[in-house]
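User: Need the bound-state model for molybdenum atom:
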Amino acid sequence: MSRLVFERKPVVTVIERRLFLRQTLSLGALTLLTGCDISDNDSVQNVLKAMSWWNDRAQAFLFGHQTPVPTYAENDVVKDFRYNAFFPAADAPKLSAADYRLELSGLIANKRPWTVDQIYALPQESQITRHVCVEGWSMIGKWSGPRLSDFLQRVGADLSAKYVGFQCADGYYGSIDMPSALHPQTIMAVKFADEILPAKYGYPFKVRIPTKLGFKNPKWVTAIFVTNRYPGGFWEDRGYNWFSGS
Ligand SMILES: Nc1nc2c(c(=O)[nH]1)N[C@H]1C(S)=C(S)[C@@H](COP(=O)(O)O)O[C@H]1N2
Ligand SMILES: [Mo]
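Assistant: Bound-state model below.
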């Protein structure tokens, strides 16, 4: 334990010092801070490990929550976007609009379940952003859908609560802090590359949170809840850093 902390301290100290100067660090800015290519597995892994060692509160305080991540041009969008989950694409849940209901619970005034059509009827945002996976790859994609903040307001969620949690059809689950849920670039992505979200990418929607690592972007979401009690997450409960973003 002490050996690990000793070894990683210099990296964290450097990042912290730069942060006080810049007051912001996006995932894209990792490149600037570390002088490493974000597509270089080993360097990214090392930096992410160092960041993980850092505590969640310090990150939340230093980063400032409403800072937008960079967006890209249509030309930058990757044609064959990579699939990832803890199982192969062939086993991806195949949800049907006819049966699907988004369940709501916790600190939400109107817990009436939502159909796919109701979600589609909300005003939609488009974004071309970089998805960064903790496994060491990143890709630029285009996602569209309602802002999570619009949805939470619409259902009367307690916006002063600490956490928004998600449950997924594959047994995956996750949670984010309320400021990240209200970030303008956090959307319920119902489309990928201008098409209805394909099954493997999370139909009917994936919560696209470009300020956070890929694993904090739950697919096949079947339930949303609002709570003050720390809900954890599938990978977080297996040791990944909960904040994992900006
Ligand atoms: N329900 C669910 N959501 C999930 C995962 C998962 O296994 N199950 N994997 C996460 C990880 S690690 C990544 S990198 C992204 C991959 O999303 P993509 O298939 O759209 O590239 O989904 C995230 N959301
Ligand atoms: Mo990931």
